[in-house]
Amino acid sequence: MNFVEILYLLATAALVVTGLTMVGLALQSYLDTSRRAMIHLSIGFTLVVGAAVATSVSAFLTSFEGVRSLLLVNTGFTASGFTFVVYSLVSYE
């Protein structure tokens, strides 16, 4: 494994840890306040984390071939996740 791949794994790990922290905080906020926007926020960050994990696993399993497909799936899941995040902000009461 070369240096760039190690950096990629470290960056992905950081995104997963911070993203799952946001999911946990949003769920805790939902339990405290019963605001549905927090559920949408947690779904959004779950999708973003899922995109990062799926892309990393797929990239290493395919030896980084099919990059266009990997980027398409990553961007699609990330965009869906951020759509939920935005919805949670505009629907917050």
Word description of this protein:
- By secondary structure, this protein is an all-alpha fold.
- 86% of the residues lie in helices and 0% in strands.
- The protein has three helices and no strands.
- Helix 1 packs antiparallel against helix 2 (37-61) and helix 2 runs antiparallel to helix 3.
Record the SSE blueprint.
Blueprint lengths: L2 H31 L3 H25 L5 H24 L3
Helix pairs in contact: 1-2, 2-3
Highlighted features:
93 residues; 3 helices
Major sheet: size, sense and barrel closure?
Answer: none
Shape: elongated
Secondary-structure element pattern, one letter each: HHH
- Overall structural class, as computed from helix and strand content, comes to mainly alpha
The N- and C-terminal alpha carbons lie at a distance of 48 Å
Which spans of ≥5 residues are poorly predicted at pLDDT below 50? none
Report the C-alpha radius of gyration, rounded: 15 Å
Question: How would you name the oligomeric state of the polypeptide chains in this document?
Answer: single chain
Helix content: over 70%
Strand content: under 5%
Give me the number of helical elements.
3
In short:
With 93 residues, the chain is mainly α. It is built from 3 helices and no strands.
